[in-house]
Amino acid sequence: MGRKQDLVDTALRLFYEHGIHAIGINQVLQEAGVAKQTLYNHFESKDSLVEAAVEHRDNLIFSWLETRMNSRPAGEEALLEMFDAVHDWFNNREPALPRFCGCFFINACGEYSDPEHPVHKRCAVHKARVFELLKMHAEKVCCSQAEAEQLANALFLLKEGAIVKAHVEGDLDAALKAKAIASGMILPH
Predict the structure, then answer these.
(1) Is the pLDDT of residue 189 over 80?
(2) Residue 157 belongs to a domain
(3) Which of 103, 143, 147, 146 is nearest to 126 (CA)?
(4) Which domain holds residue 119?
(5) What is the pTM of this model?
(6) Strand ranges in 50-159 using DSSP code E only, listed in sequence order
(7) Structural domain tally of the chain?
(8) What's the rounded Cα separation, in Å, for the pair 91 and 21?
(9) Which of 32, 86, 146, 172 is the most buried (most CB within 10 A)?
(10) Is the residue at 21 inside a domain?
(11) What counts of helices (H) and strands (E) characterise the chain?
(12) How many CB atoms lie within 10 A of CB 83?
């Protein structure tokens, strides 16, 4: 699995830093130090390599976020920890993650805008996983499923907005601003 993982890691880094369509297969091969035949032994096309990179990023980000949130008591504290985790990511204080270049999934969907494309679908799976994580913790502070879903939606949108604000406007405190809003939403429950 070594060469295959090298390809995925290199592709993910390059795609995240520069954009998927801006990076050619030859650049990935050169930086990974593998031959073209090695690529095609593992992936049938660039898109299948992109899918593998998206899946790898999904697992990396989800595992990191889940670990950070689960480091706090379930419910309110875990939900607020999400914003602290994202703040650390924006400010490049998270050793498990590369330098912040926006949301890889949002960026990838910008390049693969067809919702039926496998890359787009894989990005949507990541967002759904994060939403479910939020909803699980929201259920600890809300009286009903409907309230938990509403709170999870609001917090998810705050997080997504903070990511865009940090990336597009360079507001590296966007997650803390979102956390302040989230605190007011969580506490009344």
Answers:
(1) no
(2) yes
(3) 103
(4) 45-186
(5) 0.91
(6) none
(7) 1
(8) 26
(9) 86
(10) no
(11) 9, 0
(12) 23
CB of 60 closer than 8 Å to CB of 97: yes
Sequence-ordered list of residues with C-beta below 8 angstroms from that of 184, at least 6 positions apart, any chain: none
pLDDT of 96 = 87
Only one residue has tokens 């592709």, namely 11
Q: 47, 44, 56: which is closest to 8 by C-alpha?
A: 56
Q: Is 165 left (phi over 0), alpha (psi -120 to 50) or beta?
A: alpha
CATH number, domain of 127, equals: 1.10.357.10
* Token output for 61: 């980000």
Per-residue pLDDT reduced to its tens digit, 112-158: 999 999 999 999 999 999 999 999 999 999 889 999 999 999 999 99
Q: How far is CA 118 from the centre of its chain?
A: 17
Helix (H, G, I), strand (E, B) or coil at 187: coil
**40: closest CA among 4, 12, 11, 15?**
4
> Which of 98, 64, 104, 103 lies closest to 84, judged by CA?
64
